[in-house]
Amino acid sequence: MSREVIIRAATDLLDSGGESALTLRALTTRLKTGYGAVYHHVADKDDLLAAATDEVVARVLAGVAVDAEPRQALRGLALGLFDEIDAHPWVGAQLARHPLESATLEIYECVGRLLDALAVPGRALFDAAGALMNYVLGVAGQNAAQARSAEGADRAAFLAAVAGRWARLDPGRYPFVRKAAARLPEHDDREQFLAGIDIFLAGIATLG
Amino acid sequence: MSREVIIRAATDLLDSGGESALTLRALTTRLKTGYGAVYHHVADKDDLLAAATDEVVARVLAGVAVDAEPRQALRGLALGLFDEIDAHPWVGAQLARHPLESATLEIYECVGRLLDALAVPGRALFDAAGALMNYVLGVAGQNAAQARSAEGADRAAFLAAVAGRWARLDPGRYPFVRKAAARLPEHDDREQFLAGIDIFLAGIATLG
DNA sequence: ACCTGAACACCGTTCAAGT
DNA sequence: ACCTGAACACCGTTCAAGT
């Protein structure tokens, strides 16, 4: 028994059953051990989630091409995060729930340095870094929320259900959402995420 | 006993004690009633949270100057949401946790219509609306997370503690976060939120 | 219809007791 | 030190029983 083994088991539970699948009971059963063994290596459940999240985020940050052109590096970082959060929705939930902690801090440092390399001036640098962080964490949270709603069920079916509900809204009150519903079938989360990043970078460029 | 009375009591509990203060036990005690009475008017706890959130959001949306210049109306909507979420952090948590539901849907419709009025073209309109929503929901989530961490304690003291922790980080590994820590005392969440909105709007303007 | 409150099926966490 | 597992202090929700 070790911290590593415990965190790996927790990650497996989260990946296969979603956020709700990680319970201390399920964890001890899977590890064929007692609560004391787990609590001897880990402070509490949040420590567990934070450690599992740190590992996933570290993997993404290690893949960032720091020596590339800053704008491309930022897009790479953002996409890397998106893909990893898409594969592990619980990571998104954890990031959105605990900002200012280790994993989020690492991302913040990386984003800040890349914006600095982009020559964003003085105090605008912190506004830009904060805004970009909030956008990314917002997407992370939405992704986690969708995964929570779908939970096991087909994701395409879930989106179709949403589109159906929106299409039935009062056209007078919800003209925009109805138009959005019509676009939902051809909608690609990943593309739209990147489009948002580009809007941001375009806005940041005007700060110079 | 009525749905309205129950939702008002729930709102009071949330406002005075934070997210964790709303339990069915606390609610029945405060209302001097049993569980059955509550469940007779409300589907479940989430229904309760959603209804309480709807009221707060509806108040903000009612205050949006729809006939104003779209850019100003958008800033007004964003600021209104920020202030209400700042006053009721649990609203931020609820919005971030349940997108695509009534309260978030109302915001999305409003944002979309205002961007349309801003003459954002075709499919860029949906990218822009999505990006803006994600930014706002991200900020909402962060706000809620901070309130959760502070929970009762002094907010200024909490931020000072964060700044202290950041200032003690390794300067070689975290140059950006350390610089951010130095700026934290003079940092204003509301101003930075608005700065983010402006970066967004500037980026959206380049889509035209 | 509207309400009561004991009971159920879960949680995370603790801690005396073992090795 | 490392681990076991009964027990504790909570949750949200249900439902037979009352009015």
From TrEMBL, chains A, B:
Q: Please name the taxonomic classification of the source.
A: Bacteria, Bacillati, Actinomycetota, Actinomycetes, Pseudonocardiales
Give the DNA-binding residues: 23-42
Superkingdom in the source lineage: Bacteria
Q: Which residues form the HTH tetR-type domain?
A: 1-60
Q: Which InterPro entries match?
A: Homeodomain-like_sf, HTH-type_TetR-like_transc_reg, HTH_TetR, Repressor_TetR_C, Tet_transcr_reg_TetR-rel_C_sf
Asked if the keyword Transcription regulation belongs to this entry, the reply reads yes
Q: Which organism is it from?
A: Amycolatopsis dongchuanensis
- For this entry, the protein name equals TetR family transcriptional regulator
Keywords (alphabetical) are: DNA-binding, Transcription, Transcription regulation
